[in-house]
Amino acid sequence: MLTNKNLFFLIIQAQIGIGILGLPYILYNHVQQDGWMSLLIAGVLAQGIIIILVALSRSSPKETFYELNHRLLGNFLAKIVNILYVLYFISFSMLLMILVTDVINTWILHQTPRWAIILMLLIATSYIAKEQIVTISRAFLFFSFLFIVLIFLLILVYPQDIHFGRLQPVGSNSFTDIVKASPDAFVSLIGFELILFIMPYIKNPKTSLKVLSFANLFSLTLYIFLFITCVISFSGVQFSLIHEPLLYLFRGMSFQFVERIDIIFLSFWIVPISTTLVIQLFNASLGVQNIFSFQRKKSVYILAIILLCLGLFPISFSMKESLSSIMIYLNIIFVFIFPALLLIIAKLKGIKG
């Protein structure tokens, strides 16, 4: 069973991944130094949705989301909704793979074909995703030491050429523009929806809301700290040209016996990036298991093959941008709107945990 500690690190590993590299650039291009406000709004929105998801999960704590759908919607509608969720997780996984392979191609393996990187990524993530959630949580707990490394490296940036004046003027963008930028920040906080699928495995479901709230607060604080660090380290002109500002920060660092901190960091950071993909595969495999009555391990392998086949298709920059934009709306639909409607149905039917 999942303890509070396991659950905490499971959620932050699900939330923090590839977004930590590109989110500062995206927010700065939208609302400049006010991006931290968009992050705050996204964090509040995420907390509200967490309350809804936990309430829905507690309505039947011994069932996963896919099983609960059959009680709430009937077999026919439940199967349709479950298929849609599997397709959503496949789409999310596809976008993650594209983003990860682009970063690896750009910074580390310049000549390696995309399919080879995707194959290695899927082998590693499938190996973890096929395990039970308790085993996955223990692996994530071990991987979490990399957050300490990240925070330590960010602190080392501060003695360098930084200017806190770049954070001003505060609120120079309109409130409307700040709110419009918050969906991009919200995408980077996605991961807490995992609670819908693991409630039966939690040792103390009554404390799940508190644990998820602290995990969300940790992820939000880390993202804000990262954004502020990037803003005070780069000028506006530099920021508009740097897609992965965090890596450029580390690129400028060197020690007596160590150089290219950016490459060393990225080599390790591929692990936390991959954990987000592990969660998506886990969620989708539960759906495939429920729909087709396959073993979950077999479901993971089937999903990995599908993703590998999708990864063989050439992806242009415009296609990647379009998929990223579509995923913003899909996240809102599948993480917020559907669960909120199901919670209302559960209340109307009087289903309680």
TrEMBL record:
One GO CC term on file: membrane
Check the record and name the Gene3D superfamilies matching this protein: Amino acid/polyamine transporter I (1.20.1740.10)
InterPro entries the UniProt entry points to = Spore_GerAB
Q: Name one Pfam family in it.
A: Spore_permease
> Which residue ranges traverse the bilayer?
7-27, 39-56, 76-100, 112-128, 140-158, 185-202, 214-243, 263-288, 300-320, 326-346
Signal peptide, first to last residue: none
Query: Where found?
Result: Membrane
Keywords of the record: Germination, Membrane, Transmembrane, Transmembrane helix, Transport
Membrane topology, record value: Multi-pass membrane protein
Question: In Gene Ontology terms, what is a biological process of this protein?
Answer: spore germination
Give the family from UniProt. Answer: Belongs to the amino acid-polyamine-organocation (APC) superfamily. Spore germination protein (SGP) (TC 2.A.3.9) family.
What is the name of the protein in this document?
Answer: Uncharacterized protein
> What species is given as this protein's source?
Fictibacillus phosphorivorans
